Amino acid sequence: MAATLEELEKRLARVEQKVTRLQQLVEKPPILETAAERGARLLAQARRDKARLKAAAVKVFKEMGIQGEPVPPEKLREMMAACGIKPEENLFSRGIMEMREE
Hints:
The protein is mainly alpha-helical. It has four helices and no strands.
């Protein structure tokens, strides 16, 4: 059964309408906020989420057996050196040091 030009035009119009609707669903709306407004919104969101995120971190640390206060980097380096770990011999540390020199 051959379609007439008029039928094809109608079908094409319907397809174009559906594509337009799908694009509207998929694409993000344009950002209408300034950088300052975005910063204020993100700060407010962080303040709202702080308690929930802190509770989640405490739970995860407990499950992993991590307890106590974090060790400052300087103290950690001392502890590692006391255990005989030399940063210059560690491939990962060496890579970091080389990147810092670039």
